[in-house]
Specification:
By secondary structure, the chain is an alpha/beta fold. The protein folds into 2 domains: about 5-130, 3-Layer(aba) Sandwich (Rossmann fold); about 145-490, Rossmann fold, CATH 3.40.50.720. It starts with 17 loop residues before the first strand and ends in a 26-residue tail after the last helix. The strands form 6 sheets. It has a 9-stranded mixed β-sheet, sandwiched between helices. The chain has a 5-stranded mixed β-sheet with strand order 2-1-5-6-7, with helices on both faces. The protein has a two-stranded antiparallel ribbon with strand order 3-4. The longest helix has 21 residues, at about 250-270. Strand 8 (about 155-160), helix 6 (about 165-175) and strand 9 (about 180-185) form a beta-alpha-beta unit. The model is unreliable at about 1-15, about 115-130 and about 485-495 (pLDDT under 50). It has 16 helices and 22 strands.
């Protein structure tokens, strides 16, 4: 493509730092250029912008070097090493095209987060991150929470359990912006709470009533907290969630995912909470793992509390991109170091969501909960992990990525499901959310759960697996793990609830 010479700015003379092109000359791009120019420690030196606005010619000392579709030519002609996409509203499909073009031109790519960074604060260089694989999935995200949904937490006393995890902390971030009268953030890990308070308030003195250190397994402590604080809306995100570990330690999965959930929902009902929402997982559908089976029983526990005066429900979704210690961090390290990337199977695929999108839809589903429904989020089409690795590697300019296949481990599925065979999905008022009410609970369900809890308390592995199978007939325990190889995708579950 020919670029009008009048749109080409003069090439700066030997800039200090990596030659950087900014796509977007709007407020975000201009703010970013200013910060990068004045803060040399970032190591990036802006040389100009790309923008489709024909009236944009020069912004300070930097020129607009061409329209956005001239990316390849400008990267080549101006020896660009890094491209930064600074258009927060750019649709994912267009962003994916830019990433592929830049990667093909040999440039590395960074971008500014598109949702909270744009809505809650000015875009700034501190928001700069490596390109997320979410931008390569090629589908639009749903990030806008409707006013009617925000009203379910506005002026309410809200509690989030597992508040320090990836899902819990994002729940806290979004809920805090909607004006609750109080937001209680509960976690058993004080380091998580310290980090969360620092993120929310830019300081973390750990001396406020909003932070609560407690273990959901401790029924007496949870009951006392609910009696004292009287939360009106509860989002229960605390859980054990790493599939391979729970295959090895099923009793711990029961203690947290089943007993912990029962403790929290019972305390919520007794204290008169208006609404209780369990964060579940797609692995609860036709479960083949301890993780899936324990979360399936947790959904049943919640369903069993319907009609007790509290609106209750569960929300299932798949793998969360960007949670701590998972894809973004591990992938970047493995690919950048040219180490083999281990994947269980060439055909394995998973559903993916960003944490912002998942939490926004959790809030939407929670507002619709009434009588123990299980809501399932629309996560688009499943993505083959091999394709995701290859796309990411190409985007960062690595052409020799190596894959090593280790085989599916105990409890793992080749392809995830959203509903069990006995569940009938129905549409809801939200186009991205389906619901199912599930089968009637088996007779003596509460007694069976108590027996399961007792076996877990005795650390009786065989007893736990036998009772899980009785409660969830679709579940058949896997043979014991035998030295399974850890893979990059160990954390590709609703990680860090």
């Amino acid at each position: 493509m020919h670029v009008d010479a009048r749109m080409l700015g003069r090439r700066p003379v030997r800039p200090t730092g990596v030659r950087t092109l900014i796509v977007g000359a709007g407020n975000a791009g201009r703010t970013l250029a200013r910060d990068l120019t004045t803060t040399t420690s970032f190591g990036l030196c802006p040389i100009g912008f790309l923008d489709d606005n024909p009236h944009q010619r020069r912004l300070g000392r930097l020129g607009v070097l061409g329209p956005i579709d001239a990316l390849s030519e400008v990267v080549r002609d101006h020896a660009v090493e890094v491209v930064i996409v600074a258009i927060p509203s750019l649709p994912p499909i267009e962003l994916a095209g830019l990433l592929q073009t830049a990667a093909a031109s040999g440039a590395r790519v960074r971008y500014l987060p598109s949702f909270h960074a744009a809505v809650q604060r000015d875009s700034r260089s501190g928001d700069l991150v490596g390109v997320s694989p979410a931008s390569l999935l090629g589908r639009d995200e749903v990030n806008v929470v409707r006013p009617a949904t925000r009203a379910t937490v506005r002026d309410r006393r809200v509690m989030v359990t597992g508040a320090g995890g990836s899902i819990g902390s994002e729940l806290c971030r979004q809920i805090s912006s909607y004006g609750p009268s109080a937001l209680f953030m509960l976690d058993h890990d004080e380091s998580n709470l310290h980090r969360l308070q620092l993120e929310l308030h830019d300081e973390a003195l750990l001396d406020t009533d909003e932070l609560i250190v407690a273990d959901i397994r401790d029924a007496a402590r949870i009951g006392q907290l609910f009696a004292d604080l009287r939360p009106e809306v509860v989002y229960h995100a605390a859980a054990h969630k790493h599939l391979p570990l729970l295959e090895r330690h099923p009793c711990e999965g029961v203690k947290s995912n089943v007993v912990g959930t029962a403790n929290v929902v019972d305390a919520a009902v007794r204290s008169g909470a208006q609404r209780f929402i369990l964060i579940s997982t797609d692995k609860a559908a036709a479960p083949t793992s301890v993780l899936g089976a324990t979360k399936s029983v947790a959904e049943m526990v919640v369903r069993g509390r319907a009609g007790a005066g509290t609106s209750v429900g569960s929300v299932r979704f798949g793998n969360v991109l960007g949670s701590r210690g998972s894809f973004l961090h591990v992938m970047a390290h493995q690919v950048a170091s040219h180490a083999p990337v281990t994947i269980t199977d060439p055909e394995v695929d998973r559903f993916f969501m960003t944490v912002e999108e998942a939490v926004g839809l959790v809030l939407e589903a929670g507002a619709m909960a009434e009588a123990g429904e299980t809501f399932v989020l629309d996560m688009g089409e499943p993505v083959r992990l091999v394709s995701l690795v290859e796309s990411y590697a190409a985007q960062v300019g690595v052409t020799d990525v190596q894959l090593r296949f280790t085989g599916l481990r105990p409890g793992e599925k080749l392809n995830e499901e959203l509903f069990s065979a006995s569940e009938s999905p129905t549409s809801t008022a939200h186009p991205r959310i389906s619901a199912t009410r599930g089968d009637p609970l088996p007779g003596e369900f509460d007694v069976a759960v108590k027996d399961l809890a007792a076996a877990a308390a005795d650390n009786d592995v065989d007893g736990v697996l036998e009772r899980l199978s009785a409660l969830v007939p679709e579940y058949t325990p896997s043979p014991p793990a035998d030295g399974a190889v850890a893979t990059l995708f160990d954390s590709f579950y609703p990680d860090d609830f």
